[in-house]
Amino acid sequence: MTAVLNNRPAADADSGGTAGTGGPHRRRKPGRAAAARRRRETLAAYGFLAPWFLGLGLITIGPIIASLYFSFTDYSLIGGADWVGLENYRRMLDDPRLHQSLAVTFKYVFISVPLQLAMALALAMVLDRGVRGLPLYRSVYYLPSLLGGSVAVAILWRRIFGANGLINQLLESAGGLIGLSPTLPGWVSDPEYALGTLIILNVWTFGAPMVIFLAGLRQIPRMYYEAAQVDGAGPARRFWSVTVPLLTPIIFFNLVLQMINAFQTFTQAFIVSGGTGGPSDSTLFYTLYLYQQGFGSFEMGYASAMAWLLLMIIGGFTAVNFLASKYWVFYGD
Amino acid sequence: MAARKRGAPPARRTLAVPAAAAAAALLAAGCGGGGADGDVEIRFSWWGSDSRHEATQEVIDLFEERNPGITVTADYTDWDGYWDKLATSTAADDMPDVVTMEERYLREYSDRGALADLNGLEALDTSNVDELVASSGDVEGEKFGVATGVNVFSVMADPAQFEAAGVEVPDDETWTWEEYVETAAEITEASGGDIYGSQSMGYNENSFRIYARQHGESFYAEDGSLGFSKETLVEWFGLVAEMQEKEAQPTAAESVEIEAGGPDQSVLSTGSGAMAHFWSNQLAAISGAAKGDVELLRYPGESEFERTGMYFKPAMYYSVSAGTEHPEEAAKFVDFLLNDVDAGRIILADRGLPANTEVRSAIVEDLDEAGTRSADFVEELRPDIVDGPPPPPIGAGDVVEITKRVTDDVQFGEITPEEAADRFIEEVEAATQQ
């Protein structure tokens, strides 16, 4: 927006300049025409930009500002909104379910993101060695990323990991073969395992970072590996001293992106637990609790305050990521 | 603080102006193809399954045929999505003219001024509504909802499963809670663990509501506060824990999955249990898949304590939006849904046994077997029902989830009945007393 605005004075100065060099009368005319044309172009630009600005304002920025305002009120979605000051934020301090939801979300983010990235990198390296039918594998591994957040997969997941689901049936028959009959838990319905199952679901969607890693690996000049090999570096040494340092910008990019994504996880938990965050709040993700407060309990003011807390948490972690990146991310050249 | 409060409305208005302008623009765009002059359009929203959608559309067609000039637009979704959608459309001042309400949400909307007082609408006649549910939608003299039909929370039993286990179906007029637990445990044992005695009774707060009433208490008192004693609740969670210990019900993890599946996944529908707790209008859905002809039983303990605890609940309500532009047409439509025999013949017992007693007796012959059984059951119970509970307070919708969570914890053995009672009371009070 500012760039467009700044163009205008510059354009005026430009035409003024040409006008000054020659006969005022003759030169001025084309100058004025040029200015008019520019003005028309500027208007046209605004015209073309308008739908986007309207959308940004009405659908994104407007609601964001509104939610900031609502976070200081007792807005109930149906009734009016009375100003309550910092009450919603104070209430967060002694809301045990909010603390539970934060614990669940942090656990999820800090376990699933590193695992997912490690998985993505490992697979990318295997594929980078030049497997036959690479495009096929790439698509196959990428598929879960497209499907992972979908309702259908979450429902499927619930069935597969249920107490009498596919996984347990397989384990049972496998156990039967070696003469065991273990008591198997319901992987999504037992509070001890439910979050772990969702973490595995997230790790499974490693396709998107994998494709990016694969592109990054292709950028590393072969000669570095050859030089390292000539110097007697083994595969592990080559990985840690060539691949990882040169890949750090990509790792950083994936880390930031996946972390932000993981903090906002909603669909999987919503479907697998039927919207309750159960069993026993073991999958009560932050966004799920926010949704329950806003649309279930009509505590839209509190939910708005929660949304702003989440924004601050994500912003904080992203900032820390960027600050820390100075010490470990290596931009070549 | 007070000064700030006064300062708030202008700030809202500044937000409202652009929003209203945008809404007006959208409306103008949307109304481009409007109908003929004099045509009134009203919107009717409900939740439910496909069969309900089809039947309701049929009723709407019939209404439109008889009332030229009124168009009814259908606006339906499933139960979970319904309340999100209704809340957001109400917030946007776009509430459907006629909405289907439920007990736990009625005051949530009426106390905030979203519903019209039906007493003031001339086209709606409520004189034939069953007296046991007639005033259930009233709040302080105003009528915010009229009952669609009558429902009763009961024990459903599959006699075929009892027979297979070699256990007799108990006499439901005299059975005690202890007998219920013993019977259920016996069935599990006799079947070698293949069939569970009963699905967990803990997940629906209406079970405890009946239990509290049997003890001369109530879940909510008239003023919306909690009407039961902690001792009663501790005893209740004790029963739930006992059912779990004796393996009279599915394992805790299985129960979580069964609950998430709704009536289709109940132990009766999947043939993995002998008893379950449901609303009488769900009988048809459940018996369709069950092994035998599912029977409706009275709750255990009806003759054990001070009084009977079962009650008639309005299955749903029809309510009219306070902001509707066509209150009389909306009332006319509600009147049709409620009082017209032809409409009743299409809806049958899907929204509970019709609340209008004349419609009810007229359609009894049209009911299928399950419908007839639940109609007979309701009539049989009638003399023993003492009264109806008052409408639950604002926030009662939250109690559904609180009940599920605390019951889960009891069944997984994470908390004692004593701790469960403390937590339940604390959370329900926090949710309902704002």
From TrEMBL, chain B:
- Taxonomic superkingdom: Bacteria
| Signal peptide segment | 1-28
Q: Which UniProt keywords apply?
A: Signal
KW Amino-acid biosynthesis (keyword) present: no
Q: Does the keyword Signal apply?
A: yes
Q: What protein is this chain from?
A: Extracellular solute-binding protein
Cross-referenced Pfam families, in alphabetical order?
Answer: SBP_bac_1 (PF01547)
Species whose genome carries this gene: Nocardiopsis suaedae
Record InterPro entries: Bact_solute-bd_prot1 (IPR050490), SBP (IPR006059)
